[in-house]
Write a structure and sequence with these properties.
This is Radial spoke head protein 9 homolog. By secondary structure, the chain is α+β, with helices and mostly antiparallel strands. Helix content is 22%, strand content 20%. The chain folds into 2 domains: 59 residues, no CATH class; 124 residues, no CATH class. Helix 1 packs across helix 3. The chain starts with 14 loop residues before the first helix and ends with a helix.
């Protein structure tokens, strides 16, 4: 939105948009038509773009779409059991999910990335033996690299569990134990905290 009254949907992100956005540094300008020039693009990529008839520029709208996609992939999370994987392989919302217990809600292992699993495929059969294939089909936050990239806090006298990402500063996830209430919101600059490994 340019006037906070009329709103339009952003186009879906492509892999090319994500790759281009990863090359850009600095904060957003606030103008969807603003064009960024590649300052650190290597000669090979620049030559390929010019051959395709494209100038090495990225619009802020494309960068925004790609950044939202990156944030969703990296820190879009759900509590364990909120979704189920059927024997046929489809993933569905668990209608019987009544929330995590307070004890479970305080553990990082009770939360999963809501994206295609990567680390799960690399586990040995022995490690997978204790997992329930209907609920443990996604990557757990406890194995995120670098270790310590999440904080777990109790709010409102222990009635709300809040997880905050230190990799994407501004991402906050909440879950009310013993209820179906959970979600996440991002209020940040759109910049990844690349200094995190040195801060831990």
């Amino acid at each position: 939105s340019l006037n906070c009254v009329e709103w339009s949907l952003l186009p879906p992100a492509t892999e090319e948009m994500v790759a281009q956005a990863e090359q850009l540094k600095g904060r957003f300008q606030g103008d969807p038509s603003f064009e960024y020039e590649y300052t650190e693009i290597n000669a090979e990529d620049a030559e390929r773009l010019f051959e395709d008839g494209k100038e090495p520029m990225v619009k802020e709208e494309s960068r925004l779409v790609a950044t939202i996609e990156q944030i969703d992939r990296a820190v879009g999370i759900i509590p364990r059991g909120a979704f189920l994987k059927t024997p046929l392989g489809s993933v569905r919302e668990n209608r019987n999910f009544e929330g995590l217990s307070l004890t479970e809600a305080k553990k990082l292992s009770s939360y999963f990335h809501f994206t295609e699993p990567v680390n799960l495929k690399n586990k040995t059969l022995l490690e997978k033996a204790d997992l329930d294939p209907s609920t443990d089909f996604l990557d757990s936050l406890e194995h995120d690299i670098p270790q310590g990239s999440w904080t777990v806090q109790l709010e409102k006298g222990g009635t709300v569990v809040v997880l905050r990402s230190l990799l994407w500063l501004g991402l906050t996830f909440y879950h009310v134990p013993m209820t179906k209430q959970y979600g996440y919101v991002y209020f940040g600059t759109g910049e990844k905290n690349l200094d995190l490994p040195f801060m831990l």
